[in-house]
């Protein structure tokens, strides 16, 4: 389905029947789109009272599994999910770095998110693979800053320091992929070093 606007807007505007007709939501992205979708689902619950067409219970919304195919420059969410599922972040990186086709991409993502099963004769034929989808709950945090009426749900750690500065401060280098993290780390350390020197010199 082609959506002419953001995924979060689609979730907010879709009718209850349309949204609940899907078995799950598959996201091909880094960490940002997952954040948007989770918060859109929560915002939908808040707006449902004003719009009966959106009305869906919290249990129905929470029952919609999210599947993540990591394709961002950092993929911290996918790494955490793989680790909690027993795969480990390093194996996930190895899987995702050896992809050659779209089919490989989908099967590799499924191998991280699901466990393979043997197919019965009446279920599949040839080289088809049956998969048992296993959704897992995640810990989340609710953050609301002064002046904001709507709280935000976070699924990664809340940090203030070098890692956060690299992730947010060097967003403009996204086109470089994972290399932006290395460049951001070096520049941030250099900046911190000279700031510390100026502080020690009384400047």
Automatic annotation (TrEMBL):
PANTHER family: LD11247P-RELATED, SPHINGOSINE KINASE. Gene3D superfamilies: 2.60.200.40, Probable inorganic polyphosphate/atp-NAD kinase, domain 1. This is DAGKc domain-containing protein. The lineage of its organism: Eukaryota, Metazoa, Spiralia, Lophotrochozoa, Platyhelminthes. Residues 13-83 form the DAGKc domain. It comes from Cichlidogyrus casuarinus.
């Amino acid at each position: 389905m082609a959506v002419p606007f953001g995924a979060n807007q689609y979730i907010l505007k879709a009718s209850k029947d349309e949204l609940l007709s899907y078995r799950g939501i598959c996201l091909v992205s880094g960490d940002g789109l997952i954040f948007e979708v989770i918060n859109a689902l929560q915002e939908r619950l808040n707006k449902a009272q004003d719009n009966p067409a959106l009305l869906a219970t919290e249990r129905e919304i929470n029952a919609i599994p999210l599947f993540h195919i990591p394709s961002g420059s950092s993929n911290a969410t996918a790494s955490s999910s793989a680790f909690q599922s027993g795969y480990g972040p390093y194996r996930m990186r190895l899987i995702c770095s050896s992809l050659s086709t779209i089919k490989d991409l989908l099967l590799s993502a499924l191998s991280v998110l699901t466990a393979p099963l043997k197919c019965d004769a009446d279920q599949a034929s040839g080289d088809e693979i049956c998969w048992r989808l296993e959704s897992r709950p995640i810990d989340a945090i609710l953050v609301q800053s002064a002046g904001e009426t709507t709280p935000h749900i976070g699924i990664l750690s809340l940090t203030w320091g070098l890692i956060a500065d690299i992730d947010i401060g060097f967003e403009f280098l996204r086109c470089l992929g994972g290399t932006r993290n290395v460049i951001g780390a070096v520049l941030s350390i250099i900046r911190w070093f000279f700031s510390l020197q100026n502080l020690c010199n009384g400047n």
